[in-house]
Give the backbone structure.
Amino acid sequence: MSCQVAVLYYSRHGSTLAIARQIARGVESIPDCEALLRTVDEIDARADHQDPIMTLEELKQCDGLAMGSPVWFGNMAAPLKHFWDKTTPLWLSGDLIDKPACVFTSSSSLHGGQETTLQTMMLPLLHHGMMILGIPYSEPKLHSTTSGGTPYGASAVAAGNGKLTQDEIELAQQLGKRLAMTALKMKGI
């Protein structure tokens, strides 16, 4: 029996995708855990999807969820919000209740709205009854990072090239590990 953790993201310029991949590495570093890397449809059809589009059935079946978006004026990006607006059937049936979840983001500057964006992504997850995980201060990099990383979730300051700092990589991987270990515990493995 294995544990499948969905890593759902929207990324226009590659930084949020880079974090998603590091979270997936963290998930897959835990025995019996598999990361399912998925994205959402672009509303204006400009996206070049590198990963499959998440389906509601995949979301329903996952054992845990990491969700990421770039900062758009302190909020999650519209395509990700649009995806969640279509999850009412899962909300009505309670399919996501008690599943662990975490959030991640990237912005073009350190003070670009990372923490408010992370909080806006938590809202639909809380409405679905999911259990939100952050990064605890026991993670040493959280004390020393000068780029991304918050107790609310993994984050990065986009350098325009999709590359992350070592601190951002380590914090994202640790968040993925924490999510996977929690999903395993909740599943009883």
The chain has a mean pLDDT of 93. Residues 3-187 form a domain with the Rossmann fold fold (CATH 3.40.50.360). The chain is about 40% helix and 20% strand.
